[in-house]
Amino acid sequence: MHTDARKIDNNSLIEGDICIIGAGAAGISMALEMIGTPFKVILLEGGGFEYEAEMQDLYKGKTTGQKYFPLQSARLHYFGGTTGHWAGFCSPFDPIDFKQRDWIPHSGWPITREDLDPYYARAQKNLDLGPYDYSLEYWQKQDPERIPLPLDDKAVFNKMWQFSKPTRFGEKYKATIVKAPNVHLYTYANVTDITANEAASNVKEVTVKNLAGKQHTVRAKHFVLACCSIQNARMLLASNKQAPNGLGNQNDNVGRYFMEHIEIKSAEMWLPKPDLMKLYQWEWGVKARAELAISEEMQRKHKILNGTASLNPLAVAKNWKPMIETWTADTAKTNALMSGAKKALKEGPKLKSYNSFELFTRIEQAPNPNSRVTLDKEKDALGVPRANLHWEFTDLEKHSLRKIYQIIGEQVGISNAGRVKLMEYLRDENDSSWPAFTGGGWHHMGTTRMADDPKKGVVDKHCKVHGIANLYVAGAACYATAAAPNPTLTVTALSIRLAEHLMERMKAV
Asked: Boundaries of each FAD dependent oxidoreductase domain copy (predicted)?
């Protein structure tokens, strides 16, 4: 069922069992799990079904620290959320990503990879992926021409990726959500405040507003913040009537530990002769490929972060402009952020033999409490303080990036498969600076991190906000560490897991 919140009576009261705030990958995945259940689900989407510049403006904010994309360009504010411009890259986190690593401060999740495996398998369907099998052996059986480099997998292994179409949740699941009798979708319903009881231990209601001047109240037994990492933190910090520092922020953790994937060209690989390298190349329509990854043993030995290297034909990649320079505030205003992404995907490398490749890195950022989201003094058109993102690195990122390519270079040389040439910015071990083309993947993570101890995180292992009985957070905001893969597959898996937990809790009452 769908209702345009601009067209109902002002000050309407909307009531249900579970209120999900945000209709992107996380919120829609949760709603899909609840279709056909006895629970009345309220799904709130701030925008409509299409891109609108005035809605996108509500995501505008400021950035400091490491250069970053304009905030309104990095997320989409309409039904389906940022799946409207994602590229479809999917791979599960590695087991090491969930472990406490003594060389990485603030690492360690209260859940394991094994805890997520059943939900990863279910998430594959949501994202139109193949079977939940990311082994090299499986994909070689599908195509024997996927021949790996002859590297020692105890040092460098082939981490497999599957590619979604990419699935646009707003297009694929619109009819399913709208027709679901127990799911009540409200568009143009921006949550502007969360009201708790006086002890700030239970959420009573949320206030929604839109640019048509309407305001409504939503009451439910349970509430789930399923916006992006920046907006989830922004909403908790701005909801400060009962808790002066913001809901869930009794230990000053809300908004902290913002993480992104550092995405950056790093080296070149030269082969003795042209090779198709079909296992590693990617083009539109390819279902899977491998990236070079560092084994858990070597990560521990060298005390480095997790990261991967993708191979792009150098003849093609050398003409690519760094993404940090191409996605600007104007991108959002002209709606090119969607068509531009699709165009870039279709104009990517074509499968043919090359003898030189650019090695492009995606590496996790170490959890850093100084990398954070705070509130700005400026307010948006609905009266909510805008977000201020301070993106900050530690010395571990540069050390890890350099060591990753030293390991890859050694293994490529030992196997006589070719030679690896580091880019200039990685050669001096005493140089901790970053080049101007350093970018991110638009992968917002952290800000309401998961931890058993309330002093170390915002939500528990079930994504419930510490100290608040009926408030949850869905999505990558809950990540304790970022791992190397793009976040959408894990976001979807965690959301399915949260939906299952909530329904079990509802049934137990």
From this structure: 17-227
Q: How far is CA 435 from CA 370, 408, 429, in A?
A: 21, 21, 15
Q: What is the DSSP letter of 321?
A: P
Q: At what angle do helices 25-34 and 488-508 cross, to 10 degrees?
A: 40
Encoding tokens for residue 25? Answer: 């990958």
Picking from 105, 113, 123, 437, the residue whose alpha carbon sits closest to that of residue 259 is: 105
Distance from C-alpha of 251 to C-alpha of 417, rounded to nearest angstrom: 52
- Helix, strand or coil for residue 179? helix
Per-residue pLDDT, 338: 43
Domains assigned to the chain: 1-128+168-259+445-509 (3.50.50.60), 130-163+262-363+394-433 (no CATH)
Give the SS3 label for residue 488. helix
Amino acid 349: pLDDT: 60
User: Dihedral sign, CA of 109, 112, 116, 120?
Assistant: positive
Residue numbers in the chain where pLDDT is lower than 50: 333-345
Annotate 274-305 with DSSP letters as a single string: EE--TTT---TT--EEEEEEE-HHHHHHHT--
Which regions of 385-492 does DSSP assign to beta strands (E)?
A: 385-391, 419-422, 439-440, 471-473
> Would you say 176 and 185 are in contact if contact means Cβ atoms under 8 Å apart?
no
Query: In this predicted structure, what is the pLDDT of residue 321?
Result: 87
Identity of the amino acid at 455 = K
CB 33 within 8 A of CB 506: no
In this structure, the strands spanning 385-391 and 372-379 are antiparallel
Give the whole-angstrom CA distance, residue 316 versus residue 35.
Answer: 46
The structure tokens listed for 425 are 């910015």
Cβ atoms < 10 Å from Cβ of 478: 31
The CA distances from residue 38 to 22, 178, 182, 454, in Å, are 21, 17, 7, 33
Tell me the two tokens of residue 419. 């030679």
pTM of the model: 0.95
Contact at 8 Å (CB) between 395 and 27?
no
- Asked if residue 478 lies in contact with residue 213, where contact means CB atoms within 8 angstroms, the answer is no
Contact 243, 471 (CB under 8 A): no
Per the document, the length of the chain is: 509
User: Using an 8 Å Cβ cutoff, are 218 and 203 in contact?
Assistant: no
| pLDDT at 330 (0 to 100) | 55
Per-residue pLDDT at 336: 38
Q: 384: which 2 tokens? A: 């909510």
